[in-house]
Specification:
CATH class of the largest domain: Mainly Beta
Distance between the termini: 26 Å
CATH architecture of the largest domain: Beta Barrel
Structural class: mainly beta
Shape: globular
CATH topology of the largest domain: OB fold (Dihydrolipoamide Acetyltransferase, E2P)
Number of strands: 15
CATH superfamily of the largest domain: Nucleic acid-binding proteins
Number of helices: 3
Length: about 280
Amino acid sequence: MKTYKPTSPSQRQHTSIEYRKLLSGHAPEKSLMRGKRSMGGRNSHGRITMRHQGGGHKKTYRQVDFRFDKKNIPAKIVSIEYDPFRSAFIGLAIYQDGEKRYVVLPQKVKVGDTFLVSETAPVALGNRLPLGGMPVGTFVYNIELKPNGGAVLARAAGNYCEIVAQDAGYTHLKMPSTEVRRVISTAWASVGEVSNEEHRLVNLGKAGRSRWLGRRPTVRGTAMNPVDHPHGGGEGRQGRGLRRAKTMWGKPSGKGQKTRRPKKYSNVFIVSRRKVGKRK
């Protein structure tokens, strides 16, 4: 991590990642880039459906491959690059037939390394194969929930899932949240842990840096009026006055409470629920 001289109160707290040491310095591949309009958390009717979004620097979208439908052809990593839309680093992979694709990179990968997407690929860093072909204890990322459905799990910086069991056509994965979940063994995953593990240590230092990233201020419920939030109201600084913490809409929120829907379709795949609070 990079620290700064305390020339101001925000600089005293500010830490950042030393990108010069981690990235290869290559320019982005223009054929895999496109513009993307920022919606500011609003839907097609102009109504805010995701709070605390808006502003931020203009960004160009990199088309990252999560389907990995190019199988049995080795690919070589020729660059390690920053992606403004995700916390992990991405790399430009060139397959032996000449096709170029961006992929999310694992930790410890270097320019010149190769990977293979194949059912018979060895269990080695960056290689991609079905979950059923990996031994217990393997760390995986870019995990599918259904075969050829595209990677949806463990894609953020520093994340990974651990294979804890192989049972009756299903692979048991320990998630970053400590939840243990069953995934069908014919779903594919990549071997390793997602790059840029220091991302969680970054301290923005000041509110302005959040605004550059497109994050608008978050107002505490206790600072609102009763009409606006269940925690609002009272003279001076008050406790929430409720046994359970609630969201703005009166639903349970965090603090060790169960927030999952009782009849959610994927409940049958959960072997053990995530641990929350101090127990975690």
